[in-house]
Amino acid sequence: MASALVGCPYQVLTTIHPMSASALSPPYEAAFAALPDAAFLLDDTGRVLACSLAGARSLGLTVEQVAGRHCAELGLQPQAVASLESTRAQVLASRGPVAVELPWPTMQGAAPHAVLLTPLPSDGAAPSRVLLTARPLTEAEAMYARALEVEQAARAEMETAERRRSFLYQAMTTLFTHPPDPQGMYTLLAHLAVPDLADWCLVDALEQGPWVARVAVASLDPTQQERAHALPPRTEMHEDAPVGLLRVLRTGEPELVPAVTDSLLRAAAAEPAHPALLRLLQARSYMIVPLRARGHTLGAVTFVSSDSGRRYGPDDLALAEDLCLRASLAIDNARLVGESRRAARAREDLLAVVSHDLKNPLGVVQLGAALLTRGAAGKPGSEAVAKQAARIHDAAERMSRLISDLLDWGRLEAGRLPLDASEHSAAALATEALESIRPLAEAKGLLLQADLPPESLRVRCDRGRVLQVLGNLLGNALKFTPLGGTLAVTVTARRGEVDFSVRDTGTGIAPEALPHIFDRYWQARDAASRGTGLGLAIAKGLVEAHGGTIRAQSVPGVGSTFTFTLPVQGPGPTGAPPPGLAPPNL
Ligand code: ADP
């Protein structure tokens, strides 16, 4: 009879026992106790109504001791209890049996068992009782379960690795697409860490002198953020801090504390700010990771676990270190960009002062040269005087161009070149540039050609700056084209763009020199006439500030063609900055 019960407990128990009764009557209880497997009859709350002898023995208890206990009190591991409870609820809701594998307590400790939960109907109403049987897994089943466990662990590991990769990728793109500003980076970094890595994230930066400043705080609950402001925003560095931020800043080594204990708080007492912070944030576990770049410690990031109750381990530390490594690069980069901008601005300011001071005496020299050329009382002076006056005039012109070039370059580099954009006819721009060099070209015996589109083709640009670019290209073409040569300007429209080309039949540029001609201060060693070497660099900067591009083609002995392209729509609201330069102020 006992084996029949186990083989078909559902039918037997429904027929032999009235399900409305709250307890089994003695004969049925005895029959239940005699079942060869571990079997338990649970009531609607999960309490044991009856238990087999084998079941009680498996738990190291007697039948009497087990009866009346809740299934959570049978000595199962907490995870097994949770699984049992959710399966019991599932069984009652679905009204069908469910099998699960659980570590079941045995005399030799927990061992994997197959646990079957079967709902027992009660007089037509919804089932409220559950029959639970447990048996040890067979060897094959145990092997299968282990293989399943290994596979699940491997899958979980892969998922964790994937999550880490995507977290770091997102952090990287966020940090490096952010405008380079260290304070912005600190704030971003703190917010990146919460909630994926921490309940609280604090960023501290080393300042000049012995000070450490709190530069960013983020918390899971933004309304709590005020709590962190209760602490001093700056701390003085000292050499003997045994644990915490100051130790990490001093040693450059990270600190991982899986559990904040009283002894740790006592050990940290030498540096009172540290235990105060841990108490204030109700820290249960924390990590402090230094921010380091080019051999220097820039600051440190404190990751705190509080309400989540999470305990940090080596894997978390590795992830935090990866994040801080990337953040350090971004912060260092932002600092360098800031420094170079400041240096460029300082140089531009210096250039502005110097050139302003130079322009006045230069104006006097130019005026003097003009007067000398005209001669006293409007009569031309001697030939010798006129010759010297022309020389002075040329030298003063070159000086004036040099000053303008230096000023323009300084402004371009500092991203402070203003563009005054409005709509202009592309053909009119080209004609104006050509006409301005016509007298010189004719004096040199050069042929001028133009291939221009209708007046209606308009381009949005800073007229003065585009004429400056064309003037520079035509000036070079004039300089490097011998007598009898040709200078041609072509303007063509493409989809959304206008191409301006300046072609000459001059000396051309050597192939090895071609990649360098737009570099600042670059000039061919045998350049016929010495300029500043800034002309093409400025032309490139001006074209790019309009959102355009410039290129050169050349064949030595045949000639050169410079082409620049401007978008018809013109520069955007901030202008398109040349690579490495900030957007110009429009
Ligand atoms: P600069 O202000 O000294 O003229 P640029 O930047 O305008 O300097 O030009 C740099 C160098 O490029 C010149 O010194 C010259 O060697 C070369 N170059 C530019 N345009 C031409 C050209 N049309 N033909 C030959 N060489 C050219």
Structural description of this entry:
With 586 residues, this protein is of the alpha+beta class. The protein is 45% helix and 22% strand. Strands 8-7-6-11-10-9 form a six-stranded antiparallel sheet, with helices on both faces. Strands 2-1-5-4-3 form a five-stranded antiparallel sheet, with helices on both faces. The chain is elongated, with a radius of gyration of 42 Å. Residues 1-7 and 573-586 have low confidence and may be disordered. Residues 472, 476-477, 480, 504, 506-507, 509, 517, 522-524, 527, 531-537, 560 line the site of adenosine-5'-diphosphate.
Features:
alpha+beta; 22% strand; binds adenosine-5'-diphosphate; 586 residues; five-stranded antiparallel sheet; disordered N terminus
Characterize the biggest β-sheet: 6 strands, antiparallel
Approximately how much beta-strand content do the residues carry? 15-25%
Molecules bound to protein = adenosine-5'-diphosphate
DSSP summary, beta strand count = 18
Q: How would you sum up the global shape?
A: elongated
CA-to-CA gap between the ends? 97 Å
Rg computed from alpha carbons, rounded to a whole number of angstroms: 42 Å
Category by helix and strand content: alpha+beta
